[in-house]
Specification:
By secondary structure, the chain is an alpha+beta fold. Helices cover 52% and strands 11% of the residues. The strands form six sheets. Strands 11-12-18-14-15 form a five-stranded antiparallel beta sheet, with no helix packed on it. Strands 8-13-17-16 form a four-stranded antiparallel beta sheet, with no helix packed on it.
Length: 782
Amino acid sequence: MAQQKNIKKNKAKIIIKPPKDLPILLVVFIFLLTTFIFFADQILMNSFFWEDFAEYVFPMQTFAAKSFARGEIPFWNPYTFGGMPFYADLQVGFFYVFNRLLSLFILSGNNLPVLALELVIIFHFFIAQINTYSLAKYLNVSSYGAVISAVSYSFSMLMVGHVIHPMIIYHLSWLPLVLMLFLKSFDTKKIFYSIISGAILGMAMLSGHPQSTLYIVTLLGFTGIYQLFFFFKDSKFSKSIAKAVFIFFIPFVIAIGIFAVQYLPSKELSKYAQRNEVSYAKATEGALQFKQIYTAIVPKLFGWVEGSNLEASTFYLKLNGDLQRHFFWETAYYFGVVGAVFGLFGALVGFRLRYVWLMIIFVAFGFLYAQGGGSPIFNIFFNLPYFGVFRNPGRMMFMVTLGASILSGFGFDFLWKEAFKKETLVKFAIPLIIAFFIGFLASSGVFANLMEAPFVAQKVIEDSGNLAMIFVLIAGLIGVLLNRAVISPSLAGIGLIILAFVDLFIVGASFNRNPDNPERTYELKPELKAMLTPKLPNEIFRVSMRLYEPIRFMAMQRNQGLIDEVMLIEGYNPLILERVLPPSPNAKTTLDLCNVKYEVKVNLEKGTWAFAERTGFYPRIWLLRDYRVIETEKVSDFMKKNNLDFLQTVVLEKRPKLSNPDTSQPFESKANCEYFSNNYIKFKVNSNLPAIAVISEIWYPNWKAYIDGRPVEVLRANYSLRAVEVPQGEHTLEMKYESTAFTTGLYLTLATILIVIAGLILSYRIEIAKHIHIEIKEHTKS
């Protein structure tokens, strides 16, 4: 008995030697390797990203890259919806540095290679790993634990599932670094780190996703308040409170300043865009349901969706009685069995540690908010500015994913730091038992019955449960062996890193494997492209490629115009101007007003379609003298109910200087386009009498008009088009896109960048001066 007691005492005194840090080059290699393996199919072009990536991101970034390669900022997009602002569309993210690097892949006027765009997105998974590793290391997590955290966060389904929305990926990949620098600025009381944090946050905001921006600012706000709490609580920091408050606000001020070049034009655009009022019910769409907590262990509990076989989707979870495929990726957040088990263990053991508590706060808030109307937290924030305008509260689960992933790194370290302690193994057993039980319920079919899963999803659920149990057992075995010093922390760390990655690879790698190459999807037959592409500047026209009656049919992709410079009256964009197509008594008149030369026709008997040339369509510019002035709120109804000859009469909302025409005087006019580009149009007009030039271009306040170099007012005509009064005789009419909001924002951004540079230099020199002063003082004493 005495011998056994001595053995136990000796074990209790054993301290496992901490693992050596992995060489940074090896860490970089590991993250490059994991990124390559996870996205090998896309890198080797065996499969491609899909959904919004193909329909929206690829054509938008192609247009942006081609424009910038010509040395142009594309303020206006004439190829969708008859024309609309482009740069001001926040999600374009024109000045995000990696988006602009895409222009380097434009050669000889060709389109952007889809591989180039995919590689930029994929590279952000490497960035996410590096930044998460840096954050975990700063929080004193071991090198192996930090790699576990990085893999768990970066390849979580919240990240992988939003590859089709890369703007979200860009934000979340930089978040860990921004958070690390923000924390470091408080801990060291150095403004230097606060400035860098704000600069990187501002750069990330330029990538263009307002909801992610709001949610990240919320996380940083919680972090700053949490840090300030300790400054107020600890008397020895009382003299530093003012500096801490200053450090708190610096990143937000700098980020807003850098973001100004994009924010101000986007804010201006919002005044003229369709106001999709988001009701409370609408705002809760895409909310996480509480029962989805089990998907932290069994990711396919409610079925699955993947790009390689969309028709075989088994996802069956309904939201408010509605079943839609996109609810899957808006609520998927799986970050692996290792992340879940070791994350919960880390919280149980380390809850007394300051930064463990911060991660717990992230997890708790993120999970409660993500439940939408099912949580009082969401109800509180819904009434705050900005929060109530977004759907998909499930996206707040990034807080859970980040917090739990960092906690998993802590959990790994606690196992070897608390070796041979009975209470440590007891606490480790808690998440293991919970995770294994959840896996068993799925594997045995119990969950399928409880959740009333359709037959097609039952096998998927059972297989997911079986895998979960296997991964739980392996993770548990490695953890126990580590705690009992049977294997070293280094060996255990390697095992858990591999396990975490394999788990996430099996679950998430197939999600973004779509066989359709967007480049081929957008291919047009050469003869069709030649027919539908305007011959600038002499022959300008638009195309209608979509039918709603007698059947619904699209002859091309919705954003085909951005790829092939075909001027369409259709498009796809979450943000659309409030006034697009002019209303009229019939569809023909609307197409005429929109300068539509070709429209698609179908032959139901033969099952064929073709583009037919229209007759009688209006030119891009024409002159007239007759007008009607109608109140703004009544103009739409007036145009629908009155069958006017719009070649002779224009409907205005403001009375022009031109007096009512004398019909006894013959009117002769001529107008033609001499130059046409995205941001500038030049016309030559000639008339024997003062007239009104009607331009079949969408009205937007930033389009300014000049006659012979003299500025003139641009009137809103025929509900959504432009008109300019012109004097008699021959004149040059120019239309230029000039944005005061952009100019102001650019100056603010440049000023902020200069302040950042000056602030970094000044703060650095102050620190150097402090060290020199200390060294001189110590030398004097000696």
